[in-house]
Write a structure and sequence with these properties.
The protein is an alpha/beta fold and 362 residues long. The chain has helices at residues 7-24, 35-46, 50-65, 85-99, 130-143, 148-169, 181-191, 199-215, 231-234, 261-272, 291-302, 312-339, 346-361; strands at residues 221-224, 240-244, 247-255, 279-284, 306-311. Mean pLDDT is 90; it is low at 227-235.
């Protein structure tokens, strides 16, 4: 049987260590820790994968409140020294980070990994940010044999890094009142080239759907999920869901990955059929869908299910013309509102500022 974590005790530890880290932030030396801890901090804080940082907060807490826990095993079916990492995150870690206004994922951190994952080198395959994952493993390797005092010191270093992230996330975003259609085309083209882990195209798409709703007085309810939240984990049919009178009128998946036959088939079976969707839209990046993917979509059309494909760049530009000059400034305001969210990395906010300035100076 897996170890049972005392979640109230874990929260008390987190409150105490955070108060210590906050007091030392920018003023005093941090407690000594092995190089494996200090060298891991920078790649972890620079990573677009927030889950790695959140994982480590939970690992530290588990090690502190129960030294018999194996921090590499965050699922209860992994043995007698495993623990329930997801419940620890949902009960303690994520609510704390949100309340402290520290950038954090909106969904369970384990959604980034495959089910029943162990924090071991074999997990590295298939992960996007391998450098940060390696840093996470180095941190965990030290933590796995740490006594409670060293675990507290490691958590202090980690929370201090998160405080730096919070401080850096307060980036003043550049506002612009008016752009020409040509300037919009240049700006959107540059923004869609930003390495954002898929965040930027989703932000732009949400802002456009919100603007279309306002421009044409539609009774849409527009919902979306966090970028790092798996569709199945959040029980949704896509990245963006548009409803009217309680019924889904459009499900949208914004993707930078190749859309091939296997992906269309999987989307149909796991999303369209499961959620009884009749209109599904792929907004893709630079790579158009494979011809066999389009052919399969035509077959599903014959079964009463619409599955369409559009370039996100082309759709945004055409929509800008459709909404007209009156509502184009609203589109910009909505982008800024989304970029101000706490879970948006500082790198994206700085990229926005750089691209807007480049367009204005061009």
């Amino acid at each position: 049987m897996a170890r049972i974590i005392d979640y109230a005790a874990a929260r008390a530890v987190l409150d105490t260590v955070f108060a210590t880290a906050d007091g030392l932030f920018g003023t005093g030396p941090l407690p000594p820790v092995p190089d494996s801890i200090t060298q891991a901090i920078d790649p972890l804080m620079n990573s677009a994968t927030q889950a790695y940082r959140e994982v480590l907060v939970g690992c530290c807490l588990a090690r502190i409140v129960d030294p018999l826990v194996d921090v590499r095993l965050p699922y209860v079916n992994q043995g007698e020294n495993a623990y329930n990492g997801r419940t620890l995150d949902e009960t303690v870690v994520n609510p704390f980070l949100q309340s402290a206004e520290i950038p954090a994922s909106r969904g369970p951190f384990l959604s980034v990994f495959r089910r029943s994952v162990a924090f071991v080198p074999e997990t590295r395959a298939g992960l996007r940010d391998k450098l940060a994952f390696d840093a996470m493993l180095a941190f965990i390797d030290t933590l796995a044999s740490a006594d409670p005092d060293l675990a507290r010191a490691a958590l202090t270093h980690l929370l201090t890094g998160l405080l730096h992230l919070r401080d850096a996330s307060n980036v003043a975003l550049v506002h612009v009142q008016r752009l020409s259609q040509d300037q919009f085309e240049s700006l959107l083209t540059d923004l869609l080239k930003v390495q954002s882990g898929g965040r930027m195209p989703v932000i732009l798409a949400i802002a456009m759907f919100q603007t279309i709703k306002q421009a044409f007085g539609l009774d849409w309810q527009i919902e979306w999920q966090g970028i790092n939240v798996a569709d199945r984990a959040s029980d949704t049919g896509g990245d963006i869901t548009i409803q009217s009178d309680g019924a889904t009128v459009l499900s949208v998946e914004v993707t930078e990955r190749l859309i091939d036959r296997a992906r269309v088939e999987a989307t149909f079976n796991t999303k369209i059929l499961t959620h009884h969707l009749t209109d599904y839209l792929f907004l893709y990046g630079d790579t158009p869908p494979e011809p066999v993917a389009r052919e399969l979509a035509k077959r599903y059309f014959g079964q009463g299910h619409e599955m369409n494909f559009l370039s996100v760049r082309a759709w945004l530009l055409h929509s800008l013309v459709t909404i007209g000059s009156r509502f184009r400034p609203d589109f910009m305001v909505r982008i800024l509102t989304l970029l101000k969210e706490r879970d948006i990395p500082t790198s994206l906010k700085r990229a926005w500022n750089d691209k807007v300035r480049a367009v204005l100076e061009g």
